[in-house]
Specification:
Number of strands of chain B: 1
Structural class of chain B: mainly alpha
Number of helices of chain A: 10
CATH superfamily of the largest domain in chain A: P-loop containing nucleotide triphosphate hydrolases
Distance between the termini of chain A: 83 Å
Order of helices and strands of chain B: HEHHHHHHHHHHHH
Distance between the termini of chain B: 34 Å
Largest sheet of chain B: none
CATH architecture of the largest domain in chain A: 3-Layer(aba) Sandwich
Largest sheet of chain A: 6 strands, mixed
Helix content of chain A: 25-40%
Number of domains of chain A: 3
Oligomer: heterodimer
Number of helices of chain B: 13
Radius of gyration of chain B: 22 Å
Number of strands of chain A: 18
Largest interface: A-B, 52 and 42 residues
Shape of chain B: globular
CATH topology of the largest domain in chain A: Rossmann fold
Strand content of chain B: under 5%
């Protein structure tokens, strides 16, 4: 029994070329520009799939894969250019928390406002009002205008309203990443609870989160489905997709590069290629480069960016000022890390070759790596450490040393 | 990749739950029916958003609700000074202040609908691009809010009638169809203009000027009888001529509405409304892409 079905769905956008240079002068020129032929961009091409009742489907893909377009189509915000979408039952989308919140209205008024915008009846909201307030933890502030709330409170209240929708189909965006750690856990628990009753479609570029929630994954790339199946295979498909994309065709600019990165590969502790590692695992990164002339004082860098776009860490050859001297031709540089400190998540990789502060080559988002839970540590990163047990007497003796007046200089 | 065989697509039965189909936008008159039913399902949102318009508007203002009265009262004062003190305007035997206020009241209702709802989709772009709900609710709630303002203003009109000892006759019941026509016409234009504003922001910019010109093309400060007979045909093409004049006639002059003008206005309003709604629903699907 399907609860959601896409039948050869495509979505085309017409993009009017942004005007370069000074704005067109005169009314005629401006009107003409309005009717100028538009650049055609297919955000989705011939996408067909079905989601059965009770299934949890994850949709992943890099930026520009068509995820957001798909989300908007499913939510009914925009219509497809061709094809048809059938939705059986009530669909609720958690795309944006706090949709329709008004700063001047009180917490309760906003619950009604946001709730009805999301498709609830006032009666239904009245019945769930206490649950919504308690879930958000804003009981003491329900009659205060929302503009006096902290941003965290607004987000919690917004999610809380959305979390009480009781849909047949739940459409999830990256909304789970709201609030502090405790609230995030509450959100995930709530979604897992909803999952027991509803069909879930979760769109994300965080593989770890998708893995946690979904039984089936669709991988999108440039508007097309490239994989549909079990979660494990999706990881490989996604990683393969993002594996080294050196930018062909070679442009004149690229030929002018004195040195460039040809490939980048992740290896595990025994030298086998990997796309998925665990926190605390050994990791090696092998970079193959090509130098057109001899390059002195070169350094290599690998940057790890998180799904949030923040830079998480850097591997570099410029650790203490030493540099590499590249001979013309191909060569290999290998980084080695005993214990990976990154926490679970998906990381996008940039790599550069640098000389005297200038980038000779910069491959942006040229690869991805998936880090799964390994060493179970809390916090922003895992820090390699060791431990030993020491007896109480030895602590005492150390204290004795510090208080011993004879030790004073 | 799992492809779906075409037969399976057609034969897969859905359970008893309501099924919604999202297709490329097309201009289909029978959609009007399903659109109306969907709107009915969302009636709670209409109520909540309308209440919201009313409660938010006067928050943190000292005069609060009195602002609903300021505009018609101020205009009444200005026009009364100009047209009964500075110069003399035919007022059909009633004090000019009541004469002009009885037309300013429905006019302000219409003008408020126009100026607020023409820009409403764009000012709510945050919502339009993030959540689905029948978009016509946005202009509709501005009509409801303007109507509440109209009722507040009507209290003042009632006070003036008492003050000037003007008695009402049974013709006053005509106010109901008159307001229905005025609302239908206002809503039709609101739907039409708000959707155009999404692609052409010129609409919102032109609105204040257009409304000013339109007011003088409508019998607000002068009676319909002052319009030369040879221009009446063209003058009546403005549906507001029939409605606003009739509003004043049934109230102040104990006469039936100006039938020919009023019927013409009714026909225009009730033909325009479904057309505007169809156009709105047709463009609704692509709003989020252009806004």
């Amino acid at each position: 029994m399907s609860s959601l079905r896409l039948d050869h769905v495509s979505k085309r956008y017409l993009i009017r070329q942004a005007h370069v240079g000074p704005a067109p002068q005169g009314l005629v020129a401006r009107v003409r520009q309005r009717f100028a032929p538009a650049h055609v961009f297919w955000a989705l091409r011939d996408v067909s799939f079905e989601v059965a009742r009770g299934e949890a489907l994850g949709i992943i893909g890099p930026n520009g894969a068509g995820k957001s377009t798909l989300l908007k189509l499913l939510a009914g915000i925009t219509a497809p250019t061709s094809g048809e979408i059938s939705i059986s039952g009530k669909l609720s989308a958690l795309l944006e928390v706090g949709s329709g919140f008004h700063p001047e209205l009180s917490g309760v008024e906003n619950i009604y406002l946001s709730g009805t915008i999301l498709g609830m009846q006032r009666k239904e909201i009245a019945a769930k009002l206490d649950a919504i307030i308690d879930f958000a933890g804003v009981r003491a502030f329900v009659d205060v205008p929302v503009k006096r709330y902290s941003s965290g409170m607004v987000v919690r209240l917004g999610f809380s309203v959305a979390a009480h929708l009781d849909p047949d189909i739940l459409l999830l965006d990256e909304v789970l990443a709201v609030g502090d750690a405790a609230f995030q856990k509450k959100c995930i628990d709530r979604v897992l609870e909803l999952k027991r009753r509803s069909t879930v479609v979760f769109i994300s570029h965080d593989l770890a989160a998708v893995q946690q929630l979904c039984d089936r994954v669709i991988v999108m790339n440039q508007g097309e489905m490239i994989y549909d199946g079990a979660t494990a295979g999706a990881m490989a498909a996604y990683s393969a997709l993002a594996r080294f994309r050196s930018s062909p065709p070679r442009t004149a600019q690229s030929l002018a590069k004195t040195a460039e990165v040809v490939s980048l590969e992740f290896l595990d502790g025994v030298g086998e290629p990997v796309h998925i590692v665990k926190t605390g695992d050994a990791l090696r990164i092998r970079i193959e480069y090509k130098a057109r002339i001899a390059v002195a004082d070169a350094s290599f860098n690998v940057f790890f960016y998180g799904a949030d776009g923040a830079l998480y860490c850097q591997f570099t050859t410029w650790l203490s000022g030493e540099t590499a001297h590249l001979a013309p031709g191909n060569g290999i540089v290998e980084f080695s890390c005993e214990e990976l400190g990154l926490q679970p998540g998906t990381y996008l990789i940039d790599t550069t070759i640098e000389q005297h502060g200038n980038n000779l080559d910069w491959q942006s988002r040229c690869s991805t790596i998936q880090v799964n839970a390994g060493k179970p540590v809390k916090g922003l990163f895992y820090h390699p450490h060791t431990w030993r047990e020491t007896s109480a007497s030895s602590i005492l003796s150390e204290e004795n040393v510090t208080v011993d007046p004879g030790n004073k200089v | 990749m799992r492809a779906l065989p075409a037969e399976q697509v057609l034969s897969t039965p859905f359970s008893g739950r309501p099924t919604k189909n999202i297709r490329p936008p097309s201009f289909e008159p029978w959609r009007l029916w399903s659109a109306g039913r969907e709107l009915l399902r969302y009636r709670d949102l209409v109520v909540t958003l309308s209440l919201h318009r009313l409660s938010v508007r006067y928050k943190q203002s000292v005069l609060g609700w009195a602002w609903a009265l300021v505009q018609p009262l101020a205009l009444m004062l200005i026009y009364t000074i100009i047209f009964s003190v500075v110069t003399k305007m035919p007022d059909e035997g009633v004090p000019y202040a009541v004469f002009v206020y009885a037309a300013l009241l429905p006019w302000t209702y219409f003008a408020t609908i126009m100026t607020n709802s023409a820009t409403c989709l764009v000012t709510h772009s945050q919502l339009v691009t993030k959540v689905y709900f029948p978009r016509e609710i946005l202009p509709l709630t501005y009509v409801v809010a303007a109507f509440v303002d109209f009722l507040v203003g009507a209290i003042v009109l009632a006070g003036m009638l008492v003050y000037y000892h003007l008695s009402l006759t049974l013709y006053v019941w005509y106010l109901i169809p008159i307001m229905a026509v005025l609302s239908a016409f206002g809503l039709a234009l609101a739907l039409f203009l708000s959707v155009l504003q999404v692609r052409m922001r010129d609409i919102g910019l032109a609105m204040p000027l257009v409304m000013q010109i339109w007011m003088f093309a409508t019998p607000v400060v002068y009676p319909l009888s002052a319009v030369p007979a040879r221009l009446r045909f063209y003058y009546d093409l403005n549906p507001l001529a029939g409605t606003i004049e009739s509003f004043r006639r049934v109230l102040l002059q104990s006469k039936p509405p100006e039938y020919s003008s009023f019927i013409e206005a009714s026909v225009i309003a009730f033909v325009l409304l479904p057309l505007a709604y169809l156009f709105f629903k047709y463009r609704e699907a692509s709003m989020a892409d252009y806004i």
